[in-house]
């Protein structure tokens, strides 16, 4: 395992974890767009839980790589779904935001393959 892989994985997990906490505390900058996209409020805790599980899975993957792979796949599906949701809502100016979370997750995965 390389230092770069470890650092990027930890930063990606912290970044995704921050996003999960933002959903749980109903941060205005997160929940207002969710409502604008038409995401039902009853789904918000599940979305936060999925992000939190993914963040923990990335960290666990540093010890048990298969868990990291599963977390990466889950988070990639999650943030791809977020891209589709944003596009479907025609909030094209918000499309970069899911990519800001997806990119470090994919980066950590690629660095893990190279290590």
UniProtKB/TrEMBL annotation:
Domain of life of the native organism: Bacteria
Pfam families per UniProt: DoxX_2
Principal subcellular localization: membrane
Cited InterPro entries: DoxX
UniProt-annotated location(s): Membrane
Transmembrane regions listed in the UniProt entry: 51-84, 96-114
UniProt keyword annotations, A-Z: Membrane, Transmembrane, Transmembrane helix
Gene Ontology cellular component terms for the protein in this record: membrane
Membrane topology note: Multi-pass membrane protein
Protein name: DoxX family protein
